[in-house]
Amino acid sequence: MSLVAHVQAIGREARALFNVGQAEGLTIWSPNVNIFRDPRWGRGQETPGEDPAVASRYALAFVRGIQGNSSSSLLQTSACCKHATAYDLEDWNGVARYSFVARVTAQDLEDTFNPPFRSCVVEGKASCIMCAYTAINGVPACANTDLLTGTVRGDWGLDGYIASDCDAVAIMRDAQRYAPTPEDAVAVSLKAGLDIDCGSYIQQHATAAIQQGKLTEQDIDKALTNLFAVRMRLGHFDGDPRINMYGTLGAADICTPEHRNLALEAAQDGIVLLKNDGSILPLDRSTVTSAAVIGPNANDGMALIANYFGPPCESTTPLKGLQSYVNNVRFVAGCNSAACDVAATDQAVALAGSEDYVFLFMGLSQQQESEGKDRTSLLLPGMQHSLITAVADASKRPVILVLLSGGPVDITFAQSNPKIGAILWAGYPGQAGGLAIAKVLFGDHNPSGRLPVTWYPEEFTKVPMTDMRMRADPTSGYPGRSYRFYQGKTVYKFGYGLSYSIFSRRLVYGTSMPALSSTVLTGLRETMTEDGDRSYHVDDIGTDGCEQLKFPAMVEVQNHGPMDGKHSALMFLRWPNTKGGRPASQLIGFRSQHLKAGETANLRFDISPCEHFSRVRADGRKVIDIGSHFIMVDNHEMEIRFEA
């Protein structure tokens, strides 16, 4: 199933809950499409990861799925993409999100922070954008006319409303000291393009702002028009709601077998196999006579669903999932919680030495990462490291370590420990997470997940979280951020993930590759940098020209066995050099395909040079360099030249 199918299920259940009186409205403030810029960020768990191309694809699918049938003017629900823009800090070393001033370059805004929001609006047709607490280069996002009116509503064409993050208008006066009075805060935000405040500040102070001449009734009318237009598109004023296309949705459409299966599928597909020494996995259930299950995340239903969740239809913890495969299972938590400031190491060691196989369920929880809480360390919390090592030493055979967390952790010790045979990362996998993990462990599902973020070593925490720069600065020792720019050591790279099968991928060289010296480029003005690099402005090529430059590329994927399974092929672009802030590489496409053992398939990637070959200059403008570009799949490269 596609991501759209999963999100359609969320949208259907939301409308169904509304129809039966269990929800107060249909405006859903989701998805969070901020870039997971720093591994310590407490809300990174809500996002699709560090890559703007992945986040943009996710944004498009999420919005289309939750808002419903795009051919109808009636919205199933209203999606709200948040938090525009450059928001990725909660509370780090005394710096709080409410007063943080993010210094962001035009280059980073254009090629990292803004693309997911552009995709939400331009392609997904989102009916809402939420502005962030962040003050971007000194101007609060919810008071930023250039962002809200110029970019979101003007350049991107938002057809909907703009909401503030909760109490963001009050914060302009109380924390940011941007506006001297409550009336000024209300006036500057509404005039900038805000339509509704999550909070009561506008309700309390708008009348006084009008009386003081800082706001007009026309400003209020503009906001009300945007708000009520979305309510009309939701069908709130169409009479009997039972007669519209979503009117028949009800209790029977909630927690259906189909939706439960989707929850299981999503959990399975998200599990990443990080280590599998000696092919210890998958296990043969007939040979596993007993199991020791150890860890604070083994039998905690809350560890499955993390933050911002609805009540699950049912919940299968990892312990319960393993008990469905192994008859003799004994459990000890080993830690008082994921914080693990109290550890029952002796009890865990005794259990580990007495059972056939040992499974450790460790990681993080909302105690360490959540809204309002960033981490200061990338190591496992408390005494987890020592507990894992002691249990591994006592076990009869290499242990299996399963990590539940939103953000990455530095588990270098586990990578290199031969007594830890396998490592899986399951994220926060939702209601079916325990069953999904068991299915992977015992080979009923071949893992295919890939890491959506770089896993950094602990030494990365020396980098201030407040430094918003994406690009590295070797002169100062700043290492950069994300796989696109980071120049330091990694624990695991972006896109990493093992399988129980061996897959090969190669670019298929064919006759379909165009010579990109198209007549589209004839007569276009070239620009030249101080380094002598020549390029074309993407805006000058135009929509029609960009369409004519598109071409397909094929990737051959083969499953060499021994198991059937899904595989994701990732295609990257690299430039001949990284001058001018060019990324070291950039993901330009990804495709997944289920292949039987021994099967081969050709996957088509549609390449748009204006989108995929372009880069952003320091001034924020998109250009395509004249000369070589290299499409990469693993170690296979294909050179594409853009000729003058």
Automatic annotation (TrEMBL):
The keyword Signal applies. GO terms for molecular function: alpha-L-arabinofuranosidase activity; xylan 1,4-beta-xylosidase activity. This is Fibronectin type III-like domain-containing protein. It comes from Miscanthus lutarioriparius. One of its GO terms (biological process) is arabinan catabolic process. The keyword Signal applies. Residues 567-637 form the Fibronectin type III-like domain. Keywords: Glycosidase, Hydrolase, Signal.
